[in-house]
Protein backbone atom coordinates (compact mmCIF):
# COMPACT_ATOMS: atom_id res chain seq x y z
CA UNK A 1 0.00 0.00 0.00
CA UNK A 2 1.13 3.54 -0.72
CA UNK A 3 2.06 5.60 2.33
CA UNK A 4 0.84 9.13 3.00
CA UNK A 5 3.97 10.82 1.63
CA UNK A 6 3.73 8.95 -1.68
CA UNK A 7 0.01 9.66 -2.00
CA UNK A 8 0.57 13.35 -1.34
CA UNK A 9 3.36 13.52 -3.92
CA UNK A 10 1.34 11.65 -6.54
CA UNK A 11 -1.55 14.06 -6.03
CA UNK A 12 0.77 16.92 -7.03
CA UNK A 13 1.83 15.36 -10.33
CA UNK A 14 0.77 17.09 -13.53
CA UNK A 15 2.25 17.55 -16.99
CA UNK A 16 2.01 21.33 -17.13
CA UNK A 17 5.81 21.63 -17.24
CA UNK A 18 6.55 18.21 -18.69
CA UNK A 19 4.43 18.39 -21.83
CA UNK A 20 6.01 21.65 -23.11
CA UNK A 21 9.41 19.93 -22.91
CA UNK A 22 8.08 17.09 -25.08
CA UNK A 23 6.72 19.64 -27.55
CA UNK A 24 10.00 21.56 -27.62
CA UNK A 25 12.11 18.45 -28.10
CA UNK A 26 9.80 17.35 -30.95
CA UNK A 27 11.42 20.15 -32.98
CA UNK A 28 14.99 19.60 -31.73
CA UNK A 29 17.07 16.81 -33.32
CA UNK A 30 19.42 15.53 -30.63
CA UNK A 31 22.22 13.34 -31.94
CA UNK A 32 24.76 15.82 -33.27
CA UNK A 33 26.99 17.20 -30.46
CA UNK A 34 26.00 20.84 -30.83
CA UNK A 35 22.28 19.95 -30.74
CA UNK A 36 22.74 17.68 -27.74
CA UNK A 37 24.49 20.46 -25.83
CA UNK A 38 21.66 22.88 -26.65
CA UNK A 39 19.08 20.45 -25.32
CA UNK A 40 21.05 20.00 -22.07
CA UNK A 41 20.88 23.74 -21.52
CA UNK A 42 17.15 23.62 -22.30
CA UNK A 43 16.61 20.99 -19.58
CA UNK A 44 18.63 23.07 -17.11
CA UNK A 45 16.70 26.22 -17.95
CA UNK A 46 13.37 24.49 -17.37
CA UNK A 47 14.51 23.06 -14.04
CA UNK A 48 15.71 26.44 -12.85
CA UNK A 49 12.40 28.02 -13.88
CA UNK A 50 10.68 25.47 -11.65
CA UNK A 51 12.92 26.42 -8.75
CA UNK A 52 14.92 23.17 -8.91
CA UNK A 53 18.72 23.57 -8.61
CA UNK A 54 20.64 21.73 -11.32
CA UNK A 55 24.32 21.14 -12.01
CA UNK A 56 25.71 20.70 -15.50
CA UNK A 57 28.59 18.24 -15.29
CA UNK A 58 31.05 18.19 -18.18
CA UNK A 59 32.07 14.82 -19.57
CA UNK A 60 34.44 13.88 -22.35
CA UNK A 61 32.76 11.15 -24.38
CA UNK A 62 34.05 9.14 -27.32
CA UNK A 63 31.20 9.24 -29.83
CA UNK A 64 30.42 8.18 -33.37
CA UNK A 65 28.16 10.59 -35.23
CA UNK A 66 26.52 8.96 -38.28
CA UNK A 67 25.50 11.12 -41.22
CA UNK A 68 24.71 9.17 -44.37
CA UNK A 69 25.17 5.91 -46.21
CA UNK A 70 24.24 4.32 -49.52
CA UNK A 71 24.35 0.96 -51.26
CA UNK A 72 25.09 0.76 -54.99
CA UNK A 73 24.39 -2.36 -57.05
CA UNK A 74 24.10 -2.76 -60.82
CA UNK A 75 23.88 0.99 -61.27
CA UNK A 76 21.05 1.39 -58.74
CA UNK A 77 21.49 3.41 -55.56
CA UNK A 78 19.70 2.23 -52.42
CA UNK A 79 19.00 4.66 -49.59
CA UNK A 80 20.59 3.60 -46.32
CA UNK A 81 21.69 4.67 -42.84
CA UNK A 82 25.01 3.92 -41.15
CA UNK A 83 24.83 2.69 -37.55
CA UNK A 84 27.01 4.64 -35.16
CA UNK A 85 30.51 3.18 -34.79
CA UNK A 86 30.52 1.58 -38.22
CA UNK A 87 33.62 2.40 -40.24
CA UNK A 88 33.40 5.70 -42.09
CA UNK A 89 34.04 4.75 -45.70
CA UNK A 90 32.92 7.59 -47.99
CA UNK A 91 35.07 6.25 -50.83
CA UNK A 92 33.10 3.00 -50.78
CA UNK A 93 33.80 -0.67 -50.06
CA UNK A 94 32.93 -3.18 -52.80
CA UNK A 95 32.47 -6.89 -52.49
CA UNK A 96 30.40 -9.98 -53.22
CA UNK A 97 27.18 -10.28 -51.24
CA UNK A 98 26.51 -13.23 -48.94
CA UNK A 99 23.09 -13.60 -47.30
CA UNK A 100 22.82 -14.81 -43.70
CA UNK A 101 19.08 -15.32 -43.07
CA UNK A 102 17.77 -14.33 -39.67
CA UNK A 103 14.55 -14.37 -37.66
CA UNK A 104 13.01 -11.33 -36.05
CA UNK A 105 12.83 -11.18 -32.27
CA UNK A 106 9.46 -12.27 -30.92
CA UNK A 107 9.74 -9.96 -27.91
CA UNK A 108 11.95 -7.30 -26.36
CA UNK A 109 13.53 -10.03 -24.25
CA UNK A 110 15.16 -11.61 -27.31
CA UNK A 111 15.74 -8.37 -29.20
CA UNK A 112 19.54 -8.42 -28.92
CA UNK A 113 20.05 -12.10 -29.68
CA UNK A 114 21.75 -13.06 -32.93
CA UNK A 115 18.72 -14.84 -34.44
CA UNK A 116 20.64 -15.88 -37.56
CA UNK A 117 21.20 -19.02 -39.59
CA UNK A 118 24.19 -20.91 -38.15
CA UNK A 119 25.21 -22.65 -41.37
CA UNK A 120 25.05 -19.48 -43.46
CA UNK A 121 27.17 -17.70 -40.85
CA UNK A 122 30.06 -20.16 -41.17
CA UNK A 123 33.45 -18.50 -41.48
CA UNK A 124 34.30 -20.11 -44.82
CA UNK A 125 31.18 -18.57 -46.35
CA UNK A 126 31.65 -15.11 -44.87
CA UNK A 127 35.36 -14.35 -45.27
CA UNK A 128 36.02 -11.63 -47.82
CA UNK A 129 32.29 -11.02 -48.42
CA UNK A 130 29.80 -8.29 -47.62
CA UNK A 131 27.28 -9.96 -45.34
CA UNK A 132 23.60 -9.23 -45.88
CA UNK A 133 21.58 -10.17 -42.78
CA UNK A 134 17.93 -9.88 -41.77
CA UNK A 135 16.92 -7.71 -38.83
CA UNK A 136 18.89 -4.97 -37.10
CA UNK A 137 22.62 -4.24 -37.10
CA UNK A 138 23.05 -5.58 -33.57
CA UNK A 139 26.54 -5.47 -32.06
CA UNK A 140 26.78 -9.22 -31.51
CA UNK A 141 26.10 -9.98 -35.17
CA UNK A 142 28.42 -7.27 -36.47
CA UNK A 143 31.19 -8.41 -34.11
CA UNK A 144 30.80 -12.03 -35.17
CA UNK A 145 30.78 -11.23 -38.88
CA UNK A 146 33.83 -8.99 -38.51
CA UNK A 147 35.74 -11.67 -36.59
CA UNK A 148 34.90 -14.18 -39.31
CA UNK A 149 36.41 -11.95 -41.99
CA UNK A 150 33.46 -10.06 -43.47
CA UNK A 151 34.49 -6.81 -45.16
CA UNK A 152 31.13 -5.15 -44.63
CA UNK A 153 27.63 -5.74 -43.26
CA UNK A 154 24.20 -4.72 -44.55
CA UNK A 155 21.23 -5.20 -42.23
CA UNK A 156 17.78 -5.56 -43.76
CA UNK A 157 15.33 -3.84 -41.42
CA UNK A 158 11.91 -5.50 -41.20
CA UNK A 159 9.69 -2.68 -42.47
CA UNK A 160 9.53 0.31 -44.77
CA UNK A 161 11.66 2.37 -42.37
CA UNK A 162 15.40 2.40 -41.88
CA UNK A 163 16.26 2.48 -38.18
CA UNK A 164 19.15 4.37 -36.68
CA UNK A 165 21.25 2.44 -34.19
CA UNK A 166 24.74 1.57 -33.00
CA UNK A 167 26.71 -1.52 -33.97
CA UNK A 168 29.55 -1.43 -31.45
CA UNK A 169 29.69 -3.89 -28.56
CA UNK A 170 31.93 -1.53 -26.56
CA UNK A 171 29.99 -0.17 -23.58
CA UNK A 172 30.70 3.53 -23.07
CA UNK A 173 34.08 5.13 -23.60
CA UNK A 174 36.50 2.48 -24.93
CA UNK A 175 39.46 1.47 -22.83
CA UNK A 176 42.54 -0.33 -24.12
CA UNK A 177 40.95 -3.72 -23.51
CA UNK A 178 37.82 -2.77 -25.41
CA UNK A 179 39.40 -1.12 -28.45
CA UNK A 180 39.96 -4.38 -30.37
CA UNK A 181 36.18 -4.84 -30.46
CA UNK A 182 35.59 -1.51 -32.19
CA UNK A 183 34.02 -2.15 -35.59
CA UNK A 184 36.55 -1.87 -38.41
CA UNK A 185 34.20 -2.49 -41.32
CA UNK A 186 31.46 -0.38 -42.92
CA UNK A 187 27.92 -1.23 -41.85
CA UNK A 188 24.66 0.05 -43.30
CA UNK A 189 20.94 -0.64 -42.95
CA UNK A 190 18.31 -0.76 -45.69
CA UNK A 191 14.57 -1.17 -45.50
CA UNK A 192 12.72 -4.40 -46.22
CA UNK A 193 11.70 -3.76 -49.88
CA UNK A 194 15.24 -2.78 -50.87
CA UNK A 195 16.61 -5.63 -48.80
CA UNK A 196 14.59 -8.16 -50.77
CA UNK A 197 16.16 -6.91 -53.99
CA UNK A 198 19.61 -7.25 -52.45
CA UNK A 199 18.83 -10.76 -51.17
CA UNK A 200 17.84 -11.76 -54.69
CA UNK A 201 21.10 -10.28 -55.95
CA UNK A 202 23.07 -12.21 -53.30
CA UNK A 203 21.57 -15.49 -54.56
CA UNK A 204 23.13 -14.82 -57.95
CA UNK A 205 26.55 -14.00 -56.50
CA UNK A 206 26.15 -10.29 -57.14
CA UNK A 207 28.31 -7.50 -55.77
CA UNK A 208 27.57 -4.18 -54.09
CA UNK A 209 29.41 -1.09 -52.91
CA UNK A 210 28.76 0.31 -49.42
CA UNK A 211 29.49 3.98 -48.79
CA UNK A 212 29.24 5.47 -45.30
CA UNK A 213 30.08 8.81 -43.71
CA UNK A 214 30.51 9.22 -39.95
CA UNK A 215 32.53 11.39 -37.57
CA UNK A 216 34.25 9.70 -34.63
CA UNK A 217 36.18 11.17 -31.72
CA UNK A 218 36.10 12.84 -28.30
CA UNK A 219 33.34 15.36 -27.65
CA UNK A 220 32.44 17.57 -24.70
CA UNK A 221 29.06 16.46 -23.37
CA UNK A 222 26.90 17.90 -20.60
CA UNK A 223 25.22 15.82 -17.90
CA UNK A 224 22.41 17.66 -16.08
CA UNK A 225 22.13 16.40 -12.49
CA UNK A 226 19.64 17.29 -9.76
CA UNK A 227 20.41 16.32 -6.17
CA UNK A 228 17.40 16.24 -3.86
CA UNK A 229 18.64 15.73 -0.29
CA UNK A 230 16.92 13.33 2.06
CA UNK A 231 16.15 14.44 5.59
CA UNK A 232 17.34 11.36 7.51
CA UNK A 233 20.01 9.57 5.45
CA UNK A 234 21.12 12.23 2.95
CA UNK A 235 24.31 10.37 1.98
CA UNK A 236 22.29 7.41 0.67
CA UNK A 237 20.47 7.96 -2.62
CA UNK A 238 18.27 6.50 -5.32
CA UNK A 239 19.53 7.25 -8.84
CA UNK A 240 16.85 8.04 -11.42
CA UNK A 241 18.21 8.55 -14.92
CA UNK A 242 17.46 8.43 -18.62
CA UNK A 243 18.99 9.66 -21.86
CA UNK A 244 18.24 13.01 -23.43
CA UNK A 245 20.11 12.52 -26.71
CA UNK A 246 17.99 10.75 -29.32
CA UNK A 247 17.82 9.79 -32.95
CA UNK A 248 16.27 12.67 -34.90
CA UNK A 249 13.80 14.35 -32.51
CA UNK A 250 13.01 11.14 -30.63
CA UNK A 251 9.71 12.03 -28.97
CA UNK A 252 8.89 8.58 -27.58
CA UNK A 253 12.57 7.73 -27.18
CA UNK A 254 13.25 9.66 -25.09
CA UNK A 255 11.70 13.15 -24.89
CA UNK A 256 8.84 11.68 -22.86
CA UNK A 257 11.36 10.20 -20.42
CA UNK A 258 13.17 13.52 -20.12
CA UNK A 259 9.87 15.21 -19.37
CA UNK A 260 8.95 12.57 -16.80
CA UNK A 261 12.20 13.17 -14.92
CA UNK A 262 11.63 16.93 -15.07
CA UNK A 263 8.26 16.54 -13.36
CA UNK A 264 9.60 14.08 -10.80
CA UNK A 265 12.40 16.52 -9.99
CA UNK A 266 9.84 19.29 -9.50
CA UNK A 267 7.62 17.26 -7.19
CA UNK A 268 10.43 15.76 -5.14
CA UNK A 269 12.27 19.04 -4.71
CA UNK A 270 9.19 20.66 -3.25
CA UNK A 271 8.58 17.62 -1.04
CA UNK A 272 12.17 16.99 -0.04
CA UNK A 273 11.37 17.29 3.66
CA UNK A 274 9.37 14.06 3.27
CA UNK A 275 12.32 12.10 1.85
CA UNK A 276 14.27 9.79 4.11
CA UNK A 277 17.09 9.23 1.60
CA UNK A 278 18.23 11.45 -1.24
CA UNK A 279 17.20 11.16 -4.86
CA UNK A 280 19.66 11.96 -7.62
CA UNK A 281 18.27 12.58 -11.12
CA UNK A 282 20.55 12.56 -14.17
CA UNK A 283 19.99 13.07 -17.89
CA UNK A 284 22.50 11.09 -19.98
CA UNK A 285 24.14 12.13 -23.25
CA UNK A 286 25.93 9.62 -25.48
CA UNK A 287 23.24 6.96 -25.25
CA UNK A 288 22.66 6.83 -28.98
CA UNK A 289 26.06 7.67 -30.43
CA UNK A 290 28.31 6.24 -27.71
CA UNK A 291 26.61 3.03 -26.55
CA UNK A 292 25.53 4.48 -23.19
CA UNK A 293 28.64 6.63 -22.92
CA UNK A 294 27.04 9.20 -20.59
CA UNK A 295 25.88 6.74 -17.96
CA UNK A 296 29.12 4.74 -18.25
CA UNK A 297 31.11 7.94 -17.75
CA UNK A 298 29.09 8.72 -14.63
CA UNK A 299 29.62 5.18 -13.33
CA UNK A 300 33.37 5.67 -13.82
CA UNK A 301 33.65 9.21 -12.50
CA UNK A 302 31.51 8.61 -9.40
CA UNK A 303 32.21 4.92 -8.88
CA UNK A 304 33.22 5.09 -5.23
CA UNK A 305 30.25 7.27 -4.27
CA UNK A 306 27.91 4.91 -6.11
CA UNK A 307 29.52 1.91 -4.44
CA UNK A 308 29.21 3.41 -0.97
CA UNK A 309 25.85 5.14 -1.17
CA UNK A 310 23.61 4.26 -4.12
CA UNK A 311 20.79 1.99 -2.94
CA UNK A 312 19.02 1.59 -6.30
CA UNK A 313 19.17 2.63 -9.94
CA UNK A 314 15.95 3.38 -11.83
CA UNK A 315 16.03 3.84 -15.60
CA UNK A 316 13.48 6.04 -17.39
CA UNK A 317 13.17 5.29 -21.10
CA UNK A 318 10.14 5.59 -23.40
CA UNK A 319 7.31 6.27 -20.93
CA UNK A 320 4.13 8.01 -22.04
CA UNK A 321 3.79 6.54 -25.52
CA UNK A 322 0.52 6.00 -27.39
CA UNK A 323 -1.41 2.77 -26.90
CA UNK A 324 0.89 1.75 -24.02
CA UNK A 325 -1.77 -0.01 -21.96
CA UNK A 326 0.28 -2.70 -20.18
CA UNK A 327 3.45 -3.07 -18.13
CA UNK A 328 5.03 -6.04 -19.88
CA UNK A 329 8.67 -6.75 -20.68
CA UNK A 330 9.63 -4.19 -18.04
CA UNK A 331 13.15 -4.71 -16.72
CA UNK A 332 13.43 -5.61 -13.06
CA UNK A 333 16.03 -7.45 -11.03
CA UNK A 334 14.44 -10.26 -9.05
CA UNK A 335 14.95 -8.65 -5.65
CA UNK A 336 12.78 -5.70 -6.77
CA UNK A 337 10.00 -7.68 -8.44
CA UNK A 338 7.54 -7.54 -5.53
CA UNK A 339 8.18 -3.81 -5.12
CA UNK A 340 7.41 -3.10 -8.79
CA UNK A 341 4.37 -5.38 -8.81
CA UNK A 342 2.88 -3.60 -5.81
CA UNK A 343 3.63 -0.09 -7.10
CA UNK A 344 2.10 -0.65 -10.52
CA UNK A 345 -0.97 -2.31 -9.00
CA UNK A 346 -1.49 0.48 -6.48
CA UNK A 347 -0.78 3.41 -8.80
CA UNK A 348 -1.94 2.24 -12.23
CA UNK A 349 -4.32 -0.58 -11.21
CA UNK A 350 -2.57 -2.83 -13.73
CA UNK A 351 -0.68 -6.11 -13.49
CA UNK A 352 3.09 -6.15 -13.84
CA UNK A 353 5.09 -8.64 -15.89
CA UNK A 354 8.76 -7.97 -15.38
CA UNK A 355 11.70 -9.71 -16.95
CA UNK A 356 15.42 -10.01 -16.51
CA UNK A 357 17.14 -6.75 -17.56
CA UNK A 358 18.84 -6.92 -20.94
CA UNK A 359 22.44 -5.86 -21.41
CA UNK A 360 21.16 -2.55 -22.76
CA UNK A 361 19.45 0.69 -21.86
CA UNK A 362 22.03 2.54 -19.74
CA UNK A 363 22.31 -0.27 -17.19
CA UNK A 364 25.88 0.90 -16.63
CA UNK A 365 25.95 0.00 -12.95
CA UNK A 366 25.79 -3.81 -12.98
CA UNK A 367 29.53 -4.22 -12.50
CA UNK A 368 29.41 -2.00 -9.42
CA UNK A 369 26.49 -4.08 -8.17
CA UNK A 370 23.41 -1.88 -7.80
CA UNK A 371 19.85 -3.19 -7.58
CA UNK A 372 17.92 -1.80 -10.56
CA UNK A 373 14.43 -1.69 -11.96
CA UNK A 374 12.64 -0.31 -14.99
CA UNK A 375 14.20 0.39 -18.36
CA UNK A 376 11.47 0.56 -20.94
CA UNK A 377 8.18 1.61 -19.44
CA UNK A 378 4.60 0.76 -20.36
CA UNK A 379 3.99 -0.71 -23.80
CA UNK A 380 1.20 -1.70 -26.14
CA UNK A 381 -0.36 -5.13 -25.89
CA UNK A 382 0.64 -8.03 -28.10
CA UNK A 383 -2.83 -7.85 -29.62
CA UNK A 384 -2.36 -4.18 -30.52
CA UNK A 385 0.98 -4.93 -32.13
CA UNK A 386 -0.64 -7.65 -34.22
CA UNK A 387 -3.48 -5.32 -35.16
CA UNK A 388 -0.97 -2.71 -36.33
CA UNK A 389 1.25 -5.33 -37.98
CA UNK A 390 4.20 -4.08 -35.92
CA UNK A 391 7.46 -5.92 -35.46
CA UNK A 392 9.46 -5.86 -32.22
CA UNK A 393 11.46 -2.73 -31.48
CA UNK A 394 13.49 -1.62 -28.46
CA UNK A 395 11.43 1.30 -27.15
CA UNK A 396 8.72 3.85 -27.95
CA UNK A 397 6.09 1.75 -26.22
CA UNK A 398 6.28 -0.71 -29.10
CA UNK A 399 5.72 1.89 -31.83
CA UNK A 400 7.87 1.14 -34.87
CA UNK A 401 8.69 4.83 -35.20
CA UNK A 402 11.49 3.90 -32.75
CA UNK A 403 14.89 5.22 -33.92
CA UNK A 404 13.43 6.82 -37.04
CA UNK A 405 12.48 10.28 -38.23
CA UNK A 406 8.84 9.30 -37.59
CA UNK A 407 9.19 9.40 -33.79
CA UNK A 408 7.15 12.60 -33.63
CA UNK A 409 4.51 14.14 -31.34
CA UNK A 410 1.88 11.62 -32.40
CA UNK A 411 3.88 8.93 -30.57
CA UNK A 412 3.41 10.66 -27.19
CA UNK A 413 0.23 10.41 -25.12
CA UNK A 414 -0.38 13.04 -22.46
CA UNK A 415 -2.58 10.87 -20.21
CA UNK A 416 -0.29 7.85 -20.40
CA UNK A 417 2.68 10.06 -19.61
CA UNK A 418 0.87 11.34 -16.51
CA UNK A 419 0.20 7.76 -15.36
CA UNK A 420 3.78 6.63 -16.00
CA UNK A 421 5.22 9.62 -14.12
CA UNK A 422 3.16 8.62 -11.09
CA UNK A 423 4.45 5.04 -11.33
CA UNK A 424 8.06 6.15 -11.48
CA UNK A 425 7.59 8.65 -8.66
CA UNK A 426 5.95 6.06 -6.41
CA UNK A 427 8.69 3.49 -7.10
CA UNK A 428 11.45 5.96 -6.32
CA UNK A 429 9.82 7.20 -3.14
CA UNK A 430 9.10 3.66 -1.98
CA UNK A 431 12.84 2.97 -2.03
CA UNK A 432 13.90 6.37 -0.74
CA UNK A 433 11.52 6.28 2.23
CA UNK A 434 11.46 2.62 3.27
CA UNK A 435 12.95 2.21 6.75
CA UNK A 436 14.34 -1.11 5.50
CA UNK A 437 15.25 -1.27 1.82
CA UNK A 438 12.47 -3.11 -0.06
CA UNK A 439 14.65 -5.66 -1.85
CA UNK A 440 14.01 -9.35 -1.24
CA UNK A 441 17.13 -11.40 -1.95
CA UNK A 442 15.17 -14.60 -1.39
CA UNK A 443 13.67 -13.97 -4.84
CA UNK A 444 17.16 -13.72 -6.31
CA UNK A 445 18.19 -16.98 -4.65
CA UNK A 446 15.08 -18.61 -6.13
CA UNK A 447 16.06 -17.28 -9.56
CA UNK A 448 19.53 -18.75 -9.07
CA UNK A 449 17.98 -22.13 -8.25
CA UNK A 450 16.03 -22.14 -11.52
CA UNK A 451 19.11 -21.09 -13.49
CA UNK A 452 21.27 -23.71 -11.79
CA UNK A 453 18.74 -26.48 -12.46
CA UNK A 454 18.78 -25.55 -16.15
CA UNK A 455 22.56 -25.75 -16.27
CA UNK A 456 22.63 -29.04 -14.35
CA UNK A 457 20.23 -30.58 -16.84
CA UNK A 458 22.23 -29.30 -19.80
CA UNK A 459 25.52 -30.53 -18.32
CA UNK A 460 24.31 -34.13 -18.21
CA UNK A 461 27.07 -36.42 -16.93
CA UNK A 462 29.13 -33.37 -16.01
CA UNK A 463 26.46 -31.95 -13.70
CA UNK A 464 28.57 -33.01 -10.70
CA UNK A 465 30.85 -30.08 -11.50
CA UNK A 466 28.05 -27.89 -10.21
CA UNK A 467 27.63 -29.67 -6.87
CA UNK A 468 29.56 -26.98 -4.98
CA UNK A 469 27.28 -24.28 -6.39
CA UNK A 470 24.19 -26.18 -5.32
CA UNK A 471 25.56 -26.65 -1.80
CA UNK A 472 26.44 -22.98 -1.35
CA UNK A 473 23.13 -21.83 -2.82
CA UNK A 474 21.31 -24.04 -0.31
CA UNK A 475 23.32 -22.45 2.47
CA UNK A 476 22.58 -18.92 1.21
CA UNK A 477 18.87 -19.65 0.87
CA UNK A 478 18.66 -20.85 4.46
CA UNK A 479 20.59 -17.82 5.69
CA UNK A 480 18.28 -15.46 3.79
CA UNK A 481 15.17 -17.14 5.19
CA UNK A 482 16.49 -16.65 8.72
CA UNK A 483 17.56 -13.06 7.98
CA UNK A 484 14.18 -11.91 6.67
CA UNK A 485 12.40 -13.74 9.50
CA UNK A 486 14.57 -11.83 11.95
CA UNK A 487 13.69 -8.55 10.22
CA UNK A 488 9.98 -9.35 10.49
CA UNK A 489 10.42 -10.14 14.17
CA UNK A 490 12.24 -6.85 14.79
CA UNK A 491 15.42 -8.67 15.76
CA UNK A 492 17.62 -6.81 13.27
CA UNK A 493 18.22 -3.07 13.40
CA UNK A 494 17.35 -0.94 10.40
CA UNK A 495 20.99 0.02 9.93
CA UNK A 496 22.09 -3.60 10.14
CA UNK A 497 19.43 -4.83 7.74
CA UNK A 498 20.12 -2.10 5.17
CA UNK A 499 23.85 -2.69 5.31
CA UNK A 500 23.33 -6.35 4.47
CA UNK A 501 20.75 -5.66 1.75
CA UNK A 502 23.00 -3.10 0.04
CA UNK A 503 26.10 -5.27 0.32
CA UNK A 504 24.23 -8.24 -1.13
CA UNK A 505 23.65 -6.12 -4.22
CA UNK A 506 27.38 -5.46 -4.53
CA UNK A 507 28.00 -9.23 -4.38
CA UNK A 508 25.08 -10.84 -6.20
CA UNK A 509 24.30 -8.36 -9.00
CA UNK A 510 27.77 -8.74 -10.58
CA UNK A 511 27.53 -12.53 -10.15
CA UNK A 512 24.24 -12.61 -12.06
CA UNK A 513 24.78 -9.93 -14.69
CA UNK A 514 28.49 -9.59 -15.48
CA UNK A 515 31.49 -11.54 -16.69
CA UNK A 516 34.16 -8.93 -16.04
CA UNK A 517 35.45 -7.49 -12.75
CA UNK A 518 33.79 -4.75 -10.76
CA UNK A 519 34.29 -1.15 -11.92
CA UNK A 520 34.59 -2.21 -15.54
CA UNK A 521 31.89 -2.40 -18.20
CA UNK A 522 30.96 -5.68 -19.83
CA UNK A 523 30.38 -5.58 -23.60
CA UNK A 524 26.93 -4.76 -24.94
CA UNK A 525 26.26 -8.43 -25.60
CA UNK A 526 23.61 -10.71 -24.07
CA UNK A 527 24.49 -12.01 -20.60
CA UNK A 528 22.74 -15.17 -19.35
CA UNK A 529 21.91 -15.77 -15.72
CA UNK A 530 24.93 -16.77 -13.61
CA UNK A 531 27.16 -16.26 -16.66
CA UNK A 532 30.21 -17.98 -15.13
CA UNK A 533 28.24 -21.23 -15.44
CA UNK A 534 26.75 -20.66 -18.89
CA UNK A 535 29.26 -22.96 -20.62
CA UNK A 536 27.24 -25.80 -19.06
CA UNK A 537 24.60 -25.18 -21.68
CA UNK A 538 27.18 -25.52 -24.45
CA UNK A 539 28.89 -28.78 -23.47
CA UNK A 540 26.81 -30.77 -25.94
CA UNK A 541 28.15 -28.73 -28.84
CA UNK A 542 31.79 -29.53 -28.07
CA UNK A 543 33.59 -32.40 -29.75
CA UNK A 544 36.53 -34.39 -28.38
CA UNK A 545 38.98 -31.62 -29.32
CA UNK A 546 37.41 -28.98 -27.07
CA UNK A 547 35.18 -30.79 -24.55
CA UNK A 548 37.94 -31.10 -21.96
CA UNK A 549 38.65 -27.37 -22.15
CA UNK A 550 34.96 -26.59 -21.75
CA UNK A 551 34.85 -28.74 -18.62
CA UNK A 552 37.78 -26.80 -17.18
CA UNK A 553 35.94 -23.54 -17.88
CA UNK A 554 32.85 -24.88 -16.14
CA UNK A 555 34.87 -26.01 -13.12
CA UNK A 556 36.44 -22.58 -12.78
CA UNK A 557 33.09 -20.86 -13.21
CA UNK A 558 31.58 -23.11 -10.57
CA UNK A 559 34.41 -22.27 -8.18
CA UNK A 560 33.87 -18.56 -8.67
CA UNK A 561 30.10 -18.86 -8.29
CA UNK A 562 30.26 -21.06 -5.21
CA UNK A 563 32.78 -18.75 -3.57
CA UNK A 564 30.61 -15.67 -4.14
CA UNK A 565 27.52 -17.46 -2.82
CA UNK A 566 29.53 -18.50 0.26
CA UNK A 567 30.61 -14.87 0.76
CA UNK A 568 26.98 -13.73 0.54
CA UNK A 569 25.80 -16.39 2.99
CA UNK A 570 28.52 -15.42 5.44
CA UNK A 571 27.52 -11.76 5.24
CA UNK A 572 23.89 -12.59 5.94
CA UNK A 573 24.63 -15.03 8.75
CA UNK A 574 26.86 -12.51 10.52
CA UNK A 575 23.87 -10.21 11.01
Automatic annotation (TrEMBL):
Pfam families xref list: Peptidase_M28
Domain of life according to the entry: Bacteria
Gene3D superfamilies attached to this UniProt entry: 3.50.30.30, Zn peptidases
All copies of domain Peptidase M28, residue ranges: 227-415
Signal peptide: none
One Gene Ontology MF term: carboxypeptidase activity
PANTHER family referenced in this protein's UniProt entry, alphabetically: N-ACETYLATED-ALPHA-LINKED ACIDIC DIPEPTIDASE (PTHR10404), VACUOLAR PROTEIN SORTING-ASSOCIATED PROTEIN 70 (PTHR10404:SF46)
Name the UniProt record assigns to this protein: Peptidase family M28
Organism of this sequence: Devosia equisanguinis
Amino acid sequence: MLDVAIKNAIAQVNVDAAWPLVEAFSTMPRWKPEDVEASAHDIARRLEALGVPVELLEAQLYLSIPYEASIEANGKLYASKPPAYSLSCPEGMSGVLHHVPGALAASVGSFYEKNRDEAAAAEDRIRGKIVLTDGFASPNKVLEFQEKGAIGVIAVNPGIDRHWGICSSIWGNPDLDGLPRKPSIPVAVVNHPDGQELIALAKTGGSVTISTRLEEGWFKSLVPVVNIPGAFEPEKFVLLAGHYDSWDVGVGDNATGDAAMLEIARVLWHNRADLRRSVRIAWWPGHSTGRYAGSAWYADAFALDLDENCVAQVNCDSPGCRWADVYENVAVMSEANVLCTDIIRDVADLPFHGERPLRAGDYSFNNIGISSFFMLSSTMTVEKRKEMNYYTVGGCGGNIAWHTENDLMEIADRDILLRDIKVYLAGIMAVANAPILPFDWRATAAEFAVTLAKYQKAAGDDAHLLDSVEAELTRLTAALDAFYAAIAAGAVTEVGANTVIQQLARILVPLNYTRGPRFTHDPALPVPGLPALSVAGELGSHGPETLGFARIQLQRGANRTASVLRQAAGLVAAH
